[in-house]
């Protein structure tokens, strides 16, 4: 209901055109020069070969021949093959995601998705992907928020890549407490058994791209990927608007 009122107010009192990331005045509502430069700089950062998280600036990187793995990925396996993100979860990108997710600024989906598409195109292993699936919300969370931010991103990514999107085959069977503030063990316990696949025939033998807004510990992406793999997906690849850093 709150989102509907915000949309109505935006219609009656339209906002001034502004940069979707920093909020500075922008004649056509496009990203400003400063934010374009910042977003472009993300491409120069080398992600962990597996989970896609970015190293802290100045951190020494350990190479494995084809790339490098973060500490977590050197000691554990994941049900997803790899994950990548549009940039680090910090600064103007973090602020934009908060406005998108918590303040109902759904128009930001197209700009955040553009960063994700750039990351997708930089990683050759996405080329075998055949289906996009957003991380679902529980019915209760969807009712309260009014939209699923992952699904909005998935629709925009799918449109840009010309790839089908299925927002109904993966479901969240029950609501879980917020992940923010929990460590990895608590996050994984929180999500245990939360996801299931409603239509296994849709994802069987597919290479699925799982879309979410943020990758932090990887618990949500891992739980979603595990459910898809159990239901017959050949591979699961993660793609998010932002990701965390590691030391």
Automatic annotation (TrEMBL):
Residue ranges occupied by any Phosphoribosyltransferase domain in the UniProt entry: 161-234
Please list the residue ranges annotated as the Double zinc ribbon domain.
8-74
| Cross-referenced SUPFAM superfamilies | PRTase-like (SSF53271)
A Pfam cross-reference name = Pribosyltran
Q: Which residues cross the membrane?
A: none
What PANTHER family does this protein's entry cite? DNA UTILIZATION PROTEIN YHGH
Describe the family membership recorded for this protein in Swiss-Prot or TrEMBL: Belongs to the ComF/GntX family.
Recorded protein name is DNA utilization protein GntX
Q: What is the lineage of its organism?
A: Bacteria, Bacillati, Bacillota, Clostridia, Eubacteriales
């Amino acid at each position: 209901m709150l989102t509907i009122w915000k949309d109505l107010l935006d219609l009656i009192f339209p906002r001034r055109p502004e940069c979707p990331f920093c909020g500075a005045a922008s004649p056509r509502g496009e990203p400003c020069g400063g934010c374009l430069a910042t977003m472009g700089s993300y491409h120069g950062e080398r992600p962990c070969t597996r989970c896609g998280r970015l190293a802290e600036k100045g951190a020494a990187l350990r190479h494995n021949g084809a790339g490098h793995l973060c500490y977590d990925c050197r000691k554990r396996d994941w049900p997803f093959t790899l994950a990548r993100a549009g940039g680090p979860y910090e600064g103007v990108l973090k602020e934009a995601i908060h406005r998108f997710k918590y303040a109902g600024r759904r128009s930001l989906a197209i700009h955040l998705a553009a960063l994700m598409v750039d990351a997708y195109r930089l990683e050759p292993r996405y080329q075998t992907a055949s289906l996009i699936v957003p991380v679902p919300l529980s019915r209760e969370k969807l009712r309260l928020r009014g939209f699923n931010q992952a699904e909005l991103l998935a629709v925009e990514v799918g449109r840009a890549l010309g790839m089908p999107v299925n927002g109904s085959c993966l479901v969240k069977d029950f609501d879980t407490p917020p992940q923010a503030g929990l460590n990895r063990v608590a996050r994984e316990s929180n999500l245990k058994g939360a996801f299931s696949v409603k239509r296994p025939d849709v994802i069987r033998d597919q290479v699925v791209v799982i879309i979410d807004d943020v990758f932090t510990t990887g618990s949500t992406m891992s739980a979603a990927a595990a459910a898809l793999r159990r239901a017959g997906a050949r591979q699961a690849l993660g793609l998010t608007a932002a990701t965390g850093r590691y030391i």
